[in-house]
Amino acid sequence: MNRPPVNALNLEIVEGLHQAIDDHTNNGAKALMLSGREGIYSAGLDVKKLLEMNADEITVFFKSFWGLMAKISKSPIPIAAAITGHSPAGGAVLANFCDYRVAANGSFKIGMNEVFVGLEVPRVIYKGFARHVGEKHATNLMVHGQLMDFDFAHEIGFIDELVEPDQVKSRTLDWLKNLTQLPPLAMNRTRLNAKSEINNLFDEQLKTMSEGYAEGWFDDEVQSRMKYIAENL
Predict the structure, then answer these.
(1) Which fold has domain 11-228?
(2) pTM higher than 0.90, yes or no?
(3) What are the percentages of helix, strand and coil residues in the chain, rounded to 5?
């Protein structure tokens, strides 16, 4: 991702990620790395842009956004996150559904703070997060809308590896290269079997989740908090 200054997620970048994943997968890639810019992975949703959208536009956005999360989770080839810096909210959601997370050592924050801004955490996000960190940590962090420093995220298992900032991408590629040395059919089927509960939830809830988020976006409390965030960016 390379959308200065903070890789904020608007419809263009979400659709671009859809296209990039499809293109590379269809062209025979064995694995993919989803990386950010120096000091920032993604700051999450482009709040300023989304606040300008009407109901139809917001519905299109969230359908594409949650569809991207499902695509990453259900990818027929491994996708690893090279977390180059701060990764709050939507940035952490992106990383949540990747197969592995390598992050930069430093004073960075990561986490899914949806509750803090008035948005419900969908069950598929919660279960995906709990798969990495356990039910107790997932419940506590998500109910409180709490961000984590990278050391704590590593300690509880959300971040798989912490390395020096200039090694994040190379180490992520090394992990992917090692994984792709395994028999691909067996490896990828087993990888997807391990995520079957999450992917079944996407199958069951993708439409209602997208519609629910689009409707919830216009809640007075959510709008108030989002406008405050936009004014203080």
Answers:
(1) 2-enoyl-CoA Hydratase; Chain A, domain 1 (3.90.226)
(2) yes
(3) 60, 15, 30
